Amino acid sequence: MTDTAHRSRKTEVPDGARAGQLPPEVPLVLDATDVSVSFRGTGGRWSTVVDRVGLGFERAQVTVLLGESGSGKTVFARSITGMAPFGARVDGTAIFDDRDLLKISRRSLRTIQGDRIGMVPQDPNSSLDPMRRIGGQIIETLEQHHRVEGRDAAHARMIELLTLVHIHEPERVARCYPHEVSGGMRQRVAIAIAICCEPELIVADEPSSALDASVGVRVVQLLGDLRDRLSTAILFITHDIGIAALIANQPGDRVAVMLSGRIVELGFASQVLHNAHHPYTRALIAAEPSVSVARGHLAVVPDEVRSQRHWSDLIPVEPGHGVARPLDNAEAGVA
Amino acid sequence: MNTVLAAEDVVKSFGAFTALHGVSFSLERGKTLGVVGESGSGKSTLGRIVMRLLSPDSGRVWLGGEDLLALGRSQLRAARRRIQLVPQDPRNALNPTMTVRQNLYFQLRAQNVPRKTWASTVERLLDQVSLPPDYLHAFPHELSGGQAQRVAISRAIANNPDVLVCDEAVSALDKSVQAQVLNTFADLQASTGVAMFFISHDLAVVEHISDDVLVLNRGRTVESGATRDVLADPQDAYTRDLLTARHLAAPS
């Protein structure tokens, strides 16, 4: 690898997923390049939470962002959709429809967020208004984004959306308050709101982790089903390898593994989940509890991997699959 | 048989809602009973009843041969030392204004452990959960979720209890951290012979850690027996549903 290529700060695999899979003219829904996010800590020092991360999202493709709490996955997803947490300094670009979401005004952002980019939150309890009926909340979003004309059309579309997310008695559920339905149902309603404007990209941040296992699985399956029907790009954040395998179930789907704000492995789901190269990804896969592992012998992430500060850009190991290698301080250019 | 904890026909209602409709089980020394079910199935209620934090409407609970429900105040205090809770969220369970050492001392005082031995005991306790003694000076907010959970476990085992009640003790943790804590539980059980009443909604975890399993659905036992048998050939539709979810979300 040449020196310039090595310095290239893009995380996207060179000769990678995009180039290998689809002709370059396939437009990306959202193209995040070189995104860094830092926060000012106590004492005024900036600490970098996301470090030069780039990811592109194609239509009808699931990209799973896999990592532990604190790895920066939520901050990255919020930043590239123009919802960086208060006080964050965001560098890089996030191009959506020829506009950089990191630079445009709040007013312009509002025409994109909720309209062309949908969000599915982790906890539907905090995104739904407890004081309003479910149907009214969906209609409000439709009206906000001028998606319907007139009350009858709005009502019909709202029922159609509830049916789309597999709610069996949409008329009854529409009249319920959020607390009157189960957690899984609330999450379906949150998904209905996320997809009501037929977004080009859905960002789903741990949508199943607050739910019971079997309910969560159905919610994830629903999202996969909607991807097929609506050809939406999905950025799916999770810490659970099993859930990652469940949602990224088509040949073009990708998994990006995030560790301490860097993407350390990126490739098609089959490559990352079945042929992981990075020690961290391998440890995550081996940490999955199972009967076949003797008690007391589940794998844990090795300390030297966890404490490693600097990782290189992704180095291709096979077409579409890149892995970062550890850098010492000299290589990383740190005194 | 070396039964340390058993329940027979436990019924508990909250107003018009019946949380448990006659649940029975028994747990032997050195074994783990996995209690599985979704939210609202009654698993935590059962956990609270076996610690007698709640009293059942009917039914009986035995802790090491004693009828837990018949005990008077002082006997109950003594009995509770033999059954300890590992909570879901250790950050809420540890006193945030106390260091790890003070948190553990607080427990040792409550358990009437002679003060002279406290200093050496807390070091041994941390060692048992694979934490270096440096952490004695840390406050709970300075610990990661996995470290805080291990402190909570060390506090629970401070006086060699017979039973640990683990209520979703690893559910709030990331998978890789969860693996460490599960290893800690297994090591402890191997070295001390403590029995575990392990409540979880995660079938994969229960499959890994339990000898026996009790599947609850809406307050009723729908399946129970040796973990391998139950999960290899589930008789109940609800267990099959949980298993399907587990297999769908398996990384293989």
List the helices and strands and how they pair.
The complex is a heterodimer of chains A (335) and B (252).
Chain A: H1 3-7, H2 17-21, E1 30-40, E2 46-57, E3 62-66, H3 73-80, E4 88-96, E5 99-100, H4 106-112, E6 117-120, H5 124-127, H6 134-144, H7 151-164, H8 170-174, H9 183-195, E7 201-205, H10 213-230, E8 233-238, H11 241-247, E9 254-259, E10 262-268, H12 269-274, H13 279-286, H14 303-307, E11 310-311, E12 315-318, E13 321-323, E14 326-327, H15 329-332
Helix pairs in contact in A: 6-7, 9-10
Chain B: E1 3-14, E2 17-28, E3 32-36, H1 43-50, E4 58-63, E5 66-67, H2 73-80, E6 83-86, H3 90-93, H4 100-110, H5 118-128, H6 145-156, E7 163-167, H7 175-192, E8 195-200, H8 203-209, E9 212-217, E10 220-226, H9 227-232, H10 237-248
Parallel strand pairs in B: 3-8, 3-9, 6-7, 7-8
Antiparallel strand pairs in B: 1-2, 1-4, 4-5, 9-10
Briefly summarize what is shown.
Chain A has 15 helices and 14 strands. Helix content of chain A is 36%, strand content 23%. Chain B is globular and about 50 Å long.
Structural notes for this entry:
The complex is a heterodimer of chains A (335) and B (252). Chain A has 15 helices and 14 strands. By secondary structure, chain A is α/β, with parallel strands linked by helices. Chain A has a single domain, classed as 3-Layer(aba) Sandwich (Rossmann fold), CATH 3.40.50.300. Chain A has an eight-stranded mixed sheet with strand order 6-7-8-3-9-10-13-12, sandwiched between helices. In chain A, strands 2-1-4-5 form a four-stranded antiparallel sheet. In chain A, helix 10 links the parallel strand 7 and strand 8. The longest helix of chain A has 18 residues. Chain A starts with a helix and ends with a helix. With 252 residues, chain B is an alpha/beta fold. Chain B has two domains: 167 residues, Rossmann fold, CATH 3.40.50; 64 residues, no CATH class. Chain B has a six-stranded mixed sheet with strand order 6-7-8-3-9-10, with helices on both faces. The longest helix of chain B has 18 residues. Chain B is globular. The N and C termini of chain B lie far apart (39 Å). The model of chain B has no long low-confidence stretch (mean pLDDT 90).
